[in-house]
Amino acid sequence: MLIRKDVLNLTLPIVIEQTFVMLLGVCNTMMAGHIGEEAVSAIGMVDSINNMFISFFAALSVGATVVVAQQIGQGKTKEANETIKQALVSGAIISTVITLFIWIFRDILINRLYGSAAQTLKTDAKLYIEFTLLTYPFIAIEQISNGILRGSGDTKTPMFITLFMNIVNIFLGYVLIYGVNFRILGYVIDMPSHGIRGAAIAIAVARLVGTAIILLILIRGTKVIKIRKMFPFKLLIKTQKDIFNIGIPAGVEQLLFNTGKLIVQVFIVTMGTTSIAANTIGMSIATMINVIGSSLALAATTLVGQYVGRNDIQGARSTLIYLTQFATVCMAVIGALFFPISPWIASLYTDSREVIRLSSTLIRTNSIALLVWPISFVLSSGLKGAGDTRYTMTTAIVGMWIFRIFTGYMLGIVLNFGVLGIWIGMYTDWVVRGLLYCFRLQGEQWIKHKIV
User: Fold this and answer.
1) Do the Cβ atoms of 33 and 358 come closer than 8 Å?
2) Residues 40, 277 contacting (CB under 8 angstroms)
3) The whole model's pTM is what?
């Protein structure tokens, strides 16, 4: 399959950016994994909560991405710059409210969701969530800013920022998780190990630094967009409505979708520490494998949005089909590469043979299931770029709550397949939603929701 130049130019920086986004979590999980099964399990438990809200913020950013992409497609640069301000302010307010709410109920949340877990796990989980939830506003602002830059066609700036965030996270993570003790120029540098607390502090500082940098870039301006006269701020109802007409359905989709994933995580907690650790490691490796697919999904939102903004419907459709086919080829190749080396990859996270064995099984089944991943996620992202977020919201809820949770519960709990049964339920969800998106793309309803 030939690689289109416009897709390559837009997607390659996104691939690099998403690789570093993935590494933020993977490096923390790897470093914490060598502290013990309890540490990596606690991070997995908390990340099930964190990812629910991170995905919600990312979905809200889709509203800004789509509006900006369609405005840029029509050459409306001034309107795009106003959209930036409106999106950042609303995102900051929403994320701050969520942060305060979760902070108040953080202990209750851990106890209610993971009451069956060992006390040491719950203690570590409470410690990790206290630091990471404070970064929600930074995550929201960064996600929205990155989405806006991608919507304008600038994918290189988010790439460089995410690279720098990783450098900060890895350096601080190593120092704070393990501690250091060495002599230099006659001085002794001695920092104690902070364990899981160190992992949380490192990723929090990295997110703070990334947010500060991207805001500075938006204020100084790029070739296309620039924040002008942030204060005094005036709320523009029409712009906010355009953003939230896309962002709210996408946000609700991700919130309910990840709530379902959280329920599935609760199922896994009842299976014991080994299953929790294997699921956490498996999900971390799956994120690594999915980098190219996730990048093509993000590119689909921007490219389809810009085509729709130019009223080139055939171009939007053909580009989305091309991206889905290209993602399928890429995922098939990557799955074939990871299938034989899954035990070695899992061993980078832990020394436990049982955890490595179970993680390897999960990754091998995932490598096969990747063949249907693009029709579920790349097609969905492209439909969002056209503004068709209510349909993707409905199908995601149906796929998660009827197929993933029900199938996962029956196979994992009732039929005693364990965590593998939970993952098979996930693959069932991918197939169902993918087929629904294929049918949607064949008609004309998906194009009737353009914003600009």
Assistant:
1) no
2) yes
3) 0.70
